[in-house]
Amino acid sequence: MNPDDTSSETPTPPRPDAAERLVGASADGEDQAVEAALRPTSLGEFVGQERVREQLDLVLKAARARGATADHVLLSGAPGLGKTTLSMIIAAEMNAPIRITSGPAIQHAGDLAAILSSLQEGEVLFLDEIHRMSRPAEEMLYMAMEDFRVDVIVGKGPGATAIPLELPPFTLVGATTRAGLLPPPLRDRFGFTGHMEFYESAELERVLHRSARLLELEIDAEGAAEIAGRSRGTPRIANRLLRRVRDYAQVKADGRITREVAAMALKVYEVDSRGLDRLDRAVLHALLKLFAGGPVGLSTLAVAVGEERETVEEVAEPFLVREGLLARTPRGRIATPAAWSHLGLVPPPQTPGAGGQQGLFGA
Ligand SMILES: Nc1ncnc2c1ncn2[C@@H]1O[C@H](COP(=O)(O)OP(=O)(O)OP(=O)(O)O)[C@@H](O)[C@H]1O
Ligand SMILES: [Mg+2]
């Protein structure tokens, strides 16, 4: 038996979003190892995202019926919502091989030319983090997507010549967490764009039941609901919390995951009932207790919690804002009424932050 968390031999490299964060949405080393086993392999098995699933189903079915290669697909959405999973499903549904690469891996147009020219007919090319591709590679991709052709440049300077190269029809599946950063000419060349949304709690419960079945864990409906509610709308986080609750259930209980076991386990890991972790709560706590709910400047708030400005802004705030607990205003950060009640605190009367904006404009 290998206690997976305590191994000091395989340290995971630091990630931009707070390293080793239990509720972080990026994949850590352990996620990468287990995710392959938990990935749904057909559209029917893929939970939620009804609209994207239905539209994609039509695109793929129609292509199959025509005996053609499917149109290029762009998948956008936050980390951990299922973009990579869906790209593999597209290949499986089309009965096609898949080639996986990513924007940062393609430094030069030549790298892309090498990949494109070795594609088989009908192959799916998955280009992760497509917004991070270099400019010259991007321009080569335009032509490849549209005309299934690339110009390979041979030689340098005035003597350089472009040798046109025909490509077999292929399906490009691009994934991005930052659709806004894609240049319009690239965006326009996709026949279908799927925007992945955060998941409802009921959908995450289905993800959890499915994962529990694959991991041979016993979980009841309430246990799944308890974990789903703390998973920030993200399947990757749900699966990760499930593994931590499983550890607790095995060590401290009889292995069965019930509401009580899930709640006690996640208390140990400091993930609260809304999915806030220690950092999120520290930020809210400082905002409420030290600054009476704000408004307070980001730097001041960061110093108060002993963190870097960037950490507060990029790691803690996005979820607090999404949850309606904190708002960013031109005067600084303010707490919403929901923040006070979530931390079980009573807003002081007549203070600016107490009722959101109220008081800001008073005499
Ligand atoms: N709709 C879903 N149904 C079931 N499981 C899902 C679903 N979406 C995602 N998952 C699970 O969440 C994990 C993370 O999904 P995936 O790797 O596809 O996310 P991603 O959007 O590619 O994230 P990133 O932006 O970090 O690359 C998968 O291993 C899978 O087990
Ligand atoms: Mg991915």
From TrEMBL:
<keyword id="KW-0227">DNA damage</keyword>
<keyword id="KW-0547">Nucleotide-binding</keyword>
<feature type="region of interest" description="Disordered">
    <location>
        <begin position="1"/>
        <end position="30"/>
    </location>
</feature>
<feature type="binding site">
    <location>
        <position position="189"/>
    </location>
    <ligand>
        <name>ATP</name>
    </ligand>
</feature>
<keyword id="KW-0067">ATP-binding</keyword>
<feature type="binding site">
    <location>
        <position position="84"/>
    </location>
    <ligand>
        <name>ATP</name>
    </ligand>
</feature>
<comment type="function">
    <text>The RuvA-RuvB-RuvC complex processes Holliday junction (HJ) DNA during genetic recombination and DNA repair, while the RuvA-RuvB complex plays an important role in the rescue of blocked DNA replication forks via replication fork reversal (RFR). RuvA specifically binds to HJ cruciform DNA, conferring on it an open structure. The RuvB hexamer acts as an ATP-dependent pump, pulling dsDNA into and through the RuvAB complex. RuvB forms 2 homohexamers on either side of HJ DNA bound by 1 or 2 RuvA tetramers; 4 subunits per hexamer contact DNA at a time.</text>
</comment>
<feature type="domain" description="AAA+ ATPase">
    <location>
        <begin position="69"/>
        <end position="200"/>
    </location>
</feature>
<dbReference type="Pfam" id="PF05496">
    <property type="entry name" value="RuvB_N"/>
</dbReference>
<keyword id="KW-0347">Helicase</keyword>
<feature type="binding site">
    <location>
        <position position="199"/>
    </location>
    <ligand>
        <name>ATP</name>
    </ligand>
</feature>
<dbReference type="InterPro" id="IPR041445">
    <property type="entry name" value="AAA_lid_4"/>
</dbReference>
<dbReference type="InterPro" id="IPR008824">
    <property type="entry name" value="RuvB-like_N"/>
</dbReference>
<keyword id="KW-0233">DNA recombination</keyword>
<feature type="binding site">
    <location>
        <position position="38"/>
    </location>
    <ligand>
        <name>ATP</name>
    </ligand>
</feature>
<feature type="compositionally biased region" description="Low complexity">
    <location>
        <begin position="1"/>
        <end position="10"/>
    </location>
</feature>
<feature type="binding site">
    <location>
        <position position="309"/>
    </location>
    <ligand>
        <name>DNA</name>
    </ligand>
</feature>
<comment type="subunit">
    <text>Homohexamer. Forms an RuvA(8)-RuvB(12)-Holliday junction (HJ) complex. HJ DNA is sandwiched between 2 RuvA tetramers; dsDNA enters through RuvA and exits via RuvB. An RuvB hexamer assembles on each DNA strand where it exits the tetramer. Each RuvB hexamer is contacted by two RuvA subunits (via domain III) on 2 adjacent RuvB subunits; this complex drives branch migration. In the full resolvosome a probable DNA-RuvA(4)-RuvB(12)-RuvC(2) complex forms which resolves the HJ.</text>
</comment>
<dbReference type="Pfam" id="PF05491">
    <property type="entry name" value="WHD_RuvB"/>
</dbReference>
<feature type="region of interest" description="Large ATPase domain (RuvB-L)">
    <location>
        <begin position="19"/>
        <end position="199"/>
    </location>
</feature>
<keyword id="KW-0378">Hydrolase</keyword>
<dbReference type="InterPro" id="IPR008823">
    <property type="entry name" value="RuvB_wg_C"/>
</dbReference>
<feature type="binding site">
    <location>
        <position position="84"/>
    </location>
    <ligand>
        <name>Mg(2+)</name>
    </ligand>
</feature>
<feature type="binding site">
    <location>
        <position position="333"/>
    </location>
    <ligand>
        <name>DNA</name>
    </ligand>
</feature>
<dbReference type="InterPro" id="IPR036390">
    <property type="entry name" value="WH_DNA-bd_sf"/>
</dbReference>
<dbReference type="InterPro" id="IPR003593">
    <property type="entry name" value="AAA+_ATPase"/>
</dbReference>
<keyword id="KW-0238">DNA-binding</keyword>
<feature type="region of interest" description="Head domain (RuvB-H)">
    <location>
        <begin position="273"/>
        <end position="363"/>
    </location>
</feature>
<dbReference type="InterPro" id="IPR036388">
    <property type="entry name" value="WH-like_DNA-bd_sf"/>
</dbReference>
<feature type="binding site">
    <location>
        <begin position="146"/>
        <end position="148"/>
    </location>
    <ligand>
        <name>ATP</name>
    </ligand>
</feature>
<comment type="similarity">
    <text>Belongs to the RuvB family.</text>
</comment>
<feature type="binding site">
    <location>
        <position position="80"/>
    </location>
    <ligand>
        <name>ATP</name>
    </ligand>
</feature>
<dbReference type="InterPro" id="IPR027417">
    <property type="entry name" value="P-loop_NTPase"/>
</dbReference>
<keyword id="KW-0234">DNA repair</keyword>
<feature type="binding site">
    <location>
        <position position="328"/>
    </location>
    <ligand>
        <name>DNA</name>
    </ligand>
</feature>
<feature type="binding site">
    <location>
        <position position="236"/>
    </location>
    <ligand>
        <name>ATP</name>
    </ligand>
</feature>
<feature type="binding site">
    <location>
        <position position="39"/>
    </location>
    <ligand>
        <name>ATP</name>
    </ligand>
</feature>
<feature type="binding site">
    <location>
        <position position="85"/>
    </location>
    <ligand>
        <name>ATP</name>
    </ligand>
</feature>
<dbReference type="InterPro" id="IPR004605">
    <property type="entry name" value="DNA_helicase_Holl-junc_RuvB"/>
</dbReference>
<feature type="binding site">
    <location>
        <position position="83"/>
    </location>
    <ligand>
        <name>ATP</name>
    </ligand>
</feature>
<protein>
    <recommendedName>
        <fullName>Holliday junction branch migration complex subunit RuvB</fullName>
        <ecNumber>3.6.4.-</ecNumber>
    </recommendedName>
</protein>
<dbReference type="Pfam" id="PF17864">
    <property type="entry name" value="AAA_lid_4"/>
</dbReference>
